[in-house]
């Protein structure tokens, strides 16, 4: 991926090209000298496709003049033109890119433009930085500044065009393995938004695809793969996306990311995928006809891996895997009196460690289904092991459960009432 495809960006570039820069006036105002003005005025005689010859013949002059006009930046209209010029030639004239990157002023001058209030300048600059960083390893501080800008300014913007640009440029950066940890450092801003954009085509098929592509690229880092699973429950997003999408390329990248999770972080990935009914979804995917050979192979491999793991898991293993995803779903296990009697010692062991995790989930989750299931589970534990009431009281579980009795969700209210009755009924048995 070398170019950023976005109509809004294309319109900005066309608008800047259509405006004539008053080079002679700037020379008279001593904003630049006649030689600098002449270099860029010459280009106005040619379409962009024919810039290769004049730029190549005066390569060093164009590079030095570009840096001179950006260090420090001149007028905004000149900066827009120079940023547009650089963006055009770095994708068509490799020698220019080499000379530009050899200039010590390059990275500082470009990153300084990110502080400009002019949106067109920052849009053009992020594109230039992303493409340059893709062609040569950039300093970590430059990538950190670019990633932070894309996350804070573009990705969270209500302007969907800026979101699209940010996702594409982050995916371009993520092609380089050295940049993936830098992106991960900014995960608190980037990942929630990327996962939201990946979940639905309502933001645009292109945005969805590049969001998924970004997740796939960073999943090649073992630490990041594990974090995507444990911190953001991204396995659920990928499974649901693969299940409902009618676009093969969307399914392809979703399944490929799940395959990476299993490959690089199997102990986290396999239980998480199974707990989100991943085996059933993968079985459905295996029944569909796919044109892509790699997709078919990934689906079959994933199906076999999940089947083998599922056959070796106990019911408690499944429960604990689901708990670790921080998202509970109704299943026969949660309603089974036999399950609670059989595995109550697993909850009691290590000073009620699993029960404490369940309470923590109840206290932090805002999902009604998770809240309802957690209340149900706590009631079942109390009814099976009344001694747990003491632990629950110390953890403040009763307060949270009573708060949920006023929930807007009727199922949450019902399950919270049941849990409260169990706690009160066994209060003196603890």
Automatic annotation (TrEMBL):
Keyword Phosphoprotein belongs to the record: no
Its cellular-component GO annotations read: fungal-type vacuole membrane; vacuolar proton-transporting V-type ATPase, V1 domain
What domain of life does the native source organism fall in? Eukaryota
Residues of the ATPase V1 complex subunit H C-terminal domain: 313-428
Key words of the record: Hydrogen ion transport, Ion transport, Transport
Is the keyword Transport in the record? yes
One term of GO molecular function:
proton-transporting ATPase activity, rotational mechanism
The record, for Pfam families, names: V-ATPase_H_C, V-ATPase_H_N
InterPro entries in alphabetical order: ARM-like (IPR011989), ARM-type_fold (IPR016024), ATPase_V1-cplx_hsu (IPR004908), ATPase_V1-cplx_hsu_C (IPR011987), ATPase_V1-cplx_hsu_C_sf (IPR038497)
Similarity section:
Belongs to the V-ATPase H subunit family.
The UniProt subunit note reads as follows: V-ATPase is a heteromultimeric enzyme made up of two complexes: the ATP-hydrolytic V1 complex and the proton translocation V0 complex.
Q: What does this protein do?
A: Subunit of the V1 complex of vacuolar(H+)-ATPase (V-ATPase), a multisubunit enzyme composed of a peripheral complex (V1) that hydrolyzes ATP and a membrane integral complex (V0) that translocates protons. V-ATPase is responsible for acidifying and maintaining the pH of intracellular compartments.
Designated name of the protein: V-type proton ATPase subunit H
Q: Which species does this protein come from?
A: Wickerhamiella sorbophila
């Amino acid at each position: 991926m070398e170019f950023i495809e976005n109509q809004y960006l294309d319109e900005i570039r066309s608008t800047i090209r259509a405006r004539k820069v008053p080079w002679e006036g700037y020379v008279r105002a001593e904003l630049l000298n006649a030689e600098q003005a002449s270099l860029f005025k010459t280009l106005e005689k040619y379409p962009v496709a024919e810039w290769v010859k004049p730029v190549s013949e005066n390569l060093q002059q164009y590079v030095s003049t570009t840096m001179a006009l950006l260090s420090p930046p001149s007028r905004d209209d000149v900066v827009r033109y120079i940023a547009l010029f650089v963006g055009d030639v770095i994708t068509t004239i490799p020698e220019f890119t080499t000379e530009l990157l050899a200039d010590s002023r390059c990275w500082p001058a470009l990153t300084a433009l990110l502080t400009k209030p002019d949106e067109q300048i920052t849009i053009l600059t992020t594109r230039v930085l992303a493409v340059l960083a893709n062609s040569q390893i950039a300093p970590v501080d430059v990538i950190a500044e670019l990633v932070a800008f894309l996350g804070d300014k573009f990705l969270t913007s209500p302007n969907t065009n800026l979101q699209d640009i940010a996702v594409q440029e982050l995916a371009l950066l993520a092609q380089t393995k050295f940049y993936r940890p830098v992106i991960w450092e900014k995960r608190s801003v980037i990942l929630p938004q990327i996962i939201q954009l990946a979940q639905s085509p309502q933001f645009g098929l292109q945005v969805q695809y590049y969001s998924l592509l970004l997740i796939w690229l960073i999943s090649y880092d073992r630490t990041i793969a594990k974090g995507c699973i444990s911190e953001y429950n991204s396995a659920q997003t990928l499974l649901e996306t693969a299940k409902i999408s009618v676009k093969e390329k969307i399914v392809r990248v979703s399944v490929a990311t799940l395959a990476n999770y299993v490959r690089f972080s199997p102990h986290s990935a396999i239980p998480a995928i199974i707990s989100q009914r991943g085996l059933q979804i993968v079985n459905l995917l295996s029944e569909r006809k796919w044109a892509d050979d790699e997709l078919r192979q990934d689906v079959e491999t994933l199906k076999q891996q999940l089947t083998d793991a599922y056959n070796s898991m106990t019911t408690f293993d499944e429960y604990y895997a689901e708990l670790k995803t921080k998202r509970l779903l109704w299943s026969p296990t949660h309603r089974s009196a036999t399950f609670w009697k059989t595995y109550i010692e697993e909850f009691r062991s290590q000073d009620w460690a699993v029960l404490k995790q369940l309470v923590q989930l109840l206290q932090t989750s805002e999902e009604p289904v998770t809240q309802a299931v957690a209340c149900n589970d706590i009631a079942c534990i109390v009814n099976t092991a009344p001694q747990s009431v003491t632990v629950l009281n110390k953890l403040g579980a009763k307060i949270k459960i009573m708060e949920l009795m006023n929930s807007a969700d009727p199922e949450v209210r019902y399950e919270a009432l049941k849990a409260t009755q169990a706690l009160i009924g066994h209060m003196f048995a603890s």
